[in-house]
Amino acid sequence: MQITEQKSLTREQKEAVGLLSVGTMLEYFDLMLYVHMAVLLNELFFPKTDQFTTSLVSAFAFCSSFIFRPFAALLFGWLGDNIGRKATVVITTFLMSISCVIMANLPTYEQIGISAAWLVTLCRMLQGASSMGEVIGAELYLTETIKPPLQYFYVALMVVANNIGIFTALGVAFLVTSFGLNWRLAFWIGAVIALVGAIARTNLRETPEFVDAKKRINNMLKAVNLPIDKNIAYLHKVSKKNVISYFLIECACPLWFCISYVYCSNLLKTKFGFTPEEIISHNFLVSIIDMFFVVVLMFLVKIFHPIKVLTIRLLIYIIPLLFVANILDYITSPFELLIFQGFILLAPAGYPAQAVFYGYFPVLHRFKCSSLIFATSRALMYVVSSFGLVLLTDKFGYNGLMFLVVPIILGYSYGLLNFIKSNSIGFNLQRLEEEKLG
Q: What pTM was estimated for this model as a whole?
């Protein structure tokens, strides 16, 4: 059957795009606020130690947002596949607001000792868990509401919204530290905007693709005289090859983020003597570079298929990434490091092809599969990257980076090649079907 391409959005779709993009931006503002103020907040919530131990503590504080994400993915994946996409994004946004309220009122290490470190870590876990359902929920909602080729652009827009949230978090962190404002004010702002976002999202409707899939299942159950609440989603098989390929692709982004923001922030501190305030200001400029290129990639999917964009991205980066250690050897100024950070952030990742990847999972398994793959890749790679960068570079210098970069590039290449083949087969089958109908 010939697939009809969507040329413009309906009014309801425009409203959904607006609500989801603003909500996603606010959610990532809340999630990344601590990350970009970590150089300041870690000194308030964790005990002061030597530089190496401090780096490990910083890595632990950062990873705490992601290590429990797979469990959150199971929970929110079940909610998304059984109750609906709308309910999931509303619940997760409320959870983010609660975590920000707690963060804004947390006593410091000087006030309550090591309990402060445990409490802030628990808050980070809650934030990481809530953002898990948010990011996948928003992208799936638009994937199932809008048809290609517009689908690719608007799902990519959610990542731009993420980056705007990260950019805004850095901006607020910069203002708070530059003008000597109370850091708690930033988290109160985050709590309020998350609450507003959650309330606004209650106006969304459930995605038609999810509703249609549930309706077809119910009709099948009626036809064979089985109870309607019986779960037969297992009849929809998930390809293990697609799961592995998507996982390998999603493992790339956390490494590039950790190198650019976490590892390079430590370089600014140790090599160039930057203060926490100067590091935040410097990374604010990095986020501007990142934002520019993410927007460029979003508009590229209006011209090229997302898989083709990823292919070109890999071909451009595959050789330079093998010389990352050599590039760092020649960096002698903060400005040169700034360019390096921007370069690394744009290394091959899953963006802007999420809508294509989601389409390879059956509807009634889609939320669980995509969120679990996303969460597991983030949990694994943020832990491996954060601690690995500290331990490997301490032992091998800049060459230690290659122990992480090379496997990621190889895994990413394998995963992308599988989707290139799958996409080519799907395209050829569609052409044959169209020729028969013609």
A: 0.76
